[in-house]
Specification:
Elements: H1 6-26, H2 28-32, E1 40-41, E2 44-45, H3 52-64, H4 78-89, H5 94-106, H6 110-119, H7 123-135, H8 137-141, H9 151-154, H10 156-171, H11 175-190, H12 195-212, H13 217-230, H14 235-249, H15 258-271, H16 276-285, E3 291-293, E4 301-303, H17 317-325, H18 328-344, H19 352-359, H20 361-364, H21 369-388, H22 394-418, H23 427-439, E5 445-447, H24 453-460, E6 463-464, H25 473-484, H26 487-514, H27 521-528, H28 534-540, E7 554-559, H29 566-571, E8 588-591, E9 595-597, E10 600-604, E11 607-610, E12 615-618, E13 621-624, E14 627-633, E15 639-645, E16 652-657, E17 662-667, H30 668-671, H31 674-680, E18 689-694, E19 698-703
Parallel strand pairs: 5-6, 5-7, 14-16
Antiparallel strand pairs: 1-2, 3-4, 7-19, 8-17, 9-10, 10-11, 11-12, 12-13, 14-15, 16-17, 18-19
Helix pairs in contact: 1-6, 1-7, 3-4, 3-24, 6-7, 6-10, 7-21, 7-22, 10-11, 11-13, 11-14, 12-13, 12-19, 13-14, 13-15, 17-18, 17-21, 18-21, 19-21, 21-22, 25-26, 26-27, 27-28
């Protein structure tokens, strides 16, 4: 330590302060819920993001050494492998590792921020920027304790890449060539979707070189080694190419060949399909289509999942600004400050790709705001440190920096205190999944909406048809159909979709060698049953068709919480697959905030229910109801229902779920759907289903056919 310079000691001190600050702020959630038992299972807090259970499943299977073919467990992914490593070497439970990993890994973002500031010879700038960036709204939201997802390093790694690029261009030292390449290799290993950002950095360095430094051979070496690290080949091949070219770049006699190698690397990038994933991401988040159309065959039309994902939706400006900087004023200050900083230090222009990707949130969805956070934090911090320079003494300078820093940190800290997100499941729901695990085999399937796919696989150790990564319109259609149609046709579709899913795994293996055409399950069913129109096939499910041979058991997981998203679930099968035309939406209205005045129940949004006359007013039109159903649970959790038939010719039904304090206003189609019949009413066909778990939180049935 005595050999360290004063500047280095100060750098390490600032990194430690910023890191501990970031960790401490993330522990607020932990202490807020310290005594709240529903968020704990087996004495440990559970995680609070669905996708986290995907990586946790992979890590669990790596550690146990037990996995089976086609179970979709991500044992080869970086997040699962790193988690398994930490769980293996650290003296903590697996649940503690996945809970706290986001806290410590995401806080590493302060390291490259302060190192970048060191290159600008302004460590105070780095400290303020690190404090702000580490807890800004969107960065905190996606890296808080329990948010076990790839986001815990998705900003850390590109910030290290930005640091290495800045130092490479600034110093022209050979070591930063290999550091930059290693940054890219690790970033791609951790997050395979990193192509777009890497290519943006490459393009900006090329532009910088052509405008300001075109005769500097070092910049072309940097571009060459970056491109080779980015090509669409296996990681070990890219690593070998990078090491080989790094050796060449260090030899002066080979400088004349650098331009040729750069040209060859660019050709190899496109030839290896390097641009394809980038175009795919643009189509998915910017050029969003409501429908996706299958290639070949019947060209079926499916509803696109991106239309229902909140992360991919448009957001208002205030939310956009708040998520990046914590407050609109801070955001504006950050923009002005970054422009001024880039004017003073044009090297900071290399941060534009991160800002650009963050600004994509305005058209592509709020998830992208996280990328702009650290770079724009430099803007706010720069204005703060510049303002402090005008103070007449060091004491006043310190007070100015402290006061202004607190001003920009305050709204973010308030947000952290108020952002009390729940765990994905509560303890009672997990108990249901544990019961299912003891009942089901690892090869059995559970039919549920994709929101619950990863937790089901993690806690129940079963297979699912759809999940947080496998939820295209084509795979969502059968599951949506199962959940929103009558029991008899839903049961047949469940057996069909499971058996066809298993067959598709075999076909996918054969297709690699025999170039077989792989259709969606629903299209393959249509063809196999001799139809050319999928609508005709779906109608045939009402008849006594011959089902595939049963190879495994099928369970249905029907949680109460799915009521909130039932209309979204229905949309995926409420479509004419042949022409893409959306069908008339079913009547579904849920009210948890209602008020009764004598015989009139005001359900909100102008909907009034007349208890005495059994009529309902919707959009100023009063119509009779067909049924009024009241359900309840007694103290021993025994379910009961009272069905009152009011007008057999009417089409509107009202269900009052008294134990949930919830009213449902639904049409006949929704009333007869599998979800409402089995979950809400416990009215199931005993020839098709049998009870497995029956609780107010969720119900699990086993398919008999």
């Amino acid at each position: 330590m005595n050999n360290l310079t004063k500047d280095t000691k100060l750098t390490l001190l600032y990194i430690a302060v910023a890191f501990l600050f970031s960790v401490a702020i993330r522990m607020i959630w932990f202490y807020n819920f310290a005594e709240y038992e529903p968020f704990k299972f087996n004495g440990q807090f559970m995680i609070n993001t669905n996708d986290g259970y995907y990586w946790a499943e992979g890590a669990r299977d790596i550690l146990s050494g037990v996995t089976q073919k086609n179970d979709l467990s991500p044992i080869t992914t970086a997040a699962s492998q790193l988690t398994a490593l930490f769980a293996y070497i650290l003296p903590f439970s697996f649940e503690s590792v996945i809970l706290f990993m986001p806290v410590f890994l995401s806080s590493l973002v302060v390291v490259p921020i302060i190192l970048i500031a060191k290159s600008l010879e302004n460590l105070e700038l780095g400290l303020v920027a690190a404090l702000l960036a580490s807890i800004a709204w969107s960065y905190y939201n996606r890296t808080m304790i329990g948010y076990f997802d790839t986001d815990m390093l998705n900003i850390v790694l590109p910030m290290f890449l930005l640091w290495s690029i800045i130092w490479a261009v600034k110093t022209n030292e050979d070591k930063y060539l290999i550091i930059t390449a290693i940054d890219i290799l690790i970033y791609r290993w951790w997050y395979p979707q990193s192509y777009s950002l890497e290519l943006s950095f490459f393009g900006l360095i090329l532009l910088y070189t052509l405008i300001w430094d075109r005769k500097n051979i070092y910049n072309y070496k940097l571009l060459t080694i970056m491109m080779l690290a980015m090509i669409g080949l296996e990681g070990y091949i890219r690593a070998i190419l990078v090491l080989g070219v790094f050796y060449i770049c260090r030899q002066k006699q080979f400088d004349k060949y650098v331009y040729y190698i750069l040209s060859a690397s660019i050709v190899l990038f496109f030839a290896s399909g390097g641009f394809n994933p980038i175009w795919g991401q643009l189509k998915g988040y910017v050029f969003k289509d409501a429908l996706s159309i299958g290639e070949g065959g019947l060209k079926l039309h499916f509803y696109s999942v991106v239309q229902t994902v909140r992360e991919a939706g448009h957001i208002p400006f205030e939310m956009f600004a708040n998520r990046i900087s914590g407050h609109v004023v801070t955001f504006v200050v950050s923009i002005i400050g970054f422009i001024y900083l880039a004017y003073k230090h044009k090297i900071m222009l290399f941060g534009i790709p991160l800002i650009g990707l963050g600004f994509l949130a305005y058209v592509g969805g709020l998830r992208f705001t996280i990328y702009a956070v650290p770079v724009l934090a430099f803007g706010a911090a720069f204005l703060i440190t510049e303002a402090a320079r005008f103070m007449p003494s060091k004491r006043l300078k310190f007070l100015a920096v402290t006061a202004l820093s607190m001003a920009v940190l305050y709204p973010n800290i308030v947000h952290v205190q108020e952002y009390r997100v729940p765990t994905v499941f509560n303890a009672q729901e997990v108990e249901i999944l544990e019961t299912l695990k003891n009942r089901a085999d690892r090869e059995d399937y559970v039919v549920a909406w994709w929101d619950y796919g990863y937790p089901l696989r993690y806690y129940s150790d079963v297979k699912t048809l759809i999940d947080g990564g496998k939820h295209s319109g084509a795979v969502n259609f059968p599951v949506s159909f199962i959940l929103t149609n009558p029991q008899n046709v839903s049961a047949k579709m469940a057996r069909l979709d499971v058996e066809y899913t298993e067959k598709s795994f075999i076909k996918e293996e054969l297709s690699r060698d025999k170039n077989l055409t792989i259709f969606s399950n629903i299209e393959q069913m249509t063809k196999d049953y001799g139809f050319s129109d999928t609508n005709d096939f779906l109608l045939s499910l009402q008849t006594d068709i011959k089902l595939p041979q049963k190879t495994r058991d099928i369970y249905l997981y029907l949680p109460y919480r799915m009521l909130d998203i039932y209309p979204t679930v229905e949309m995926f099968s409420n479509i004419n697959l042949m022409d893409g035309e959306m069908k008339k939406r079913s009547l579904f209205y849920l009210s948890k905030m209602f008020k009764q005045e004598q015989n009139i129940v005001n359900l909100g949004q102008g909907i009034l229910f007349d208890l005495q006359n059994k009529k309902i007013t919707i959009n100023n039109q009063t119509v009779p109801i067909k049924r009024f159903v009241q359900t309840s649970y007694d103290k021993s959790m025994k379910f009961s229902k009272n069905v009152q038939m009011a007008n057999p010719t009417a089409s509107v039904n009202i269900i009052y779920m008294s134990s949930y304090n919830t009213f449902l206003v639904i049409d006949e189609k929704t009333y007869n759907s599998l979800y409402v019949q089995l979950m809400v009413l416990e009215e199931y066909d005993k020839n098709l289903f049998e009870e497995v778990v029956m609780t107010p939180h969720a119900k699990v049935y086993k398919l008999k056919i």
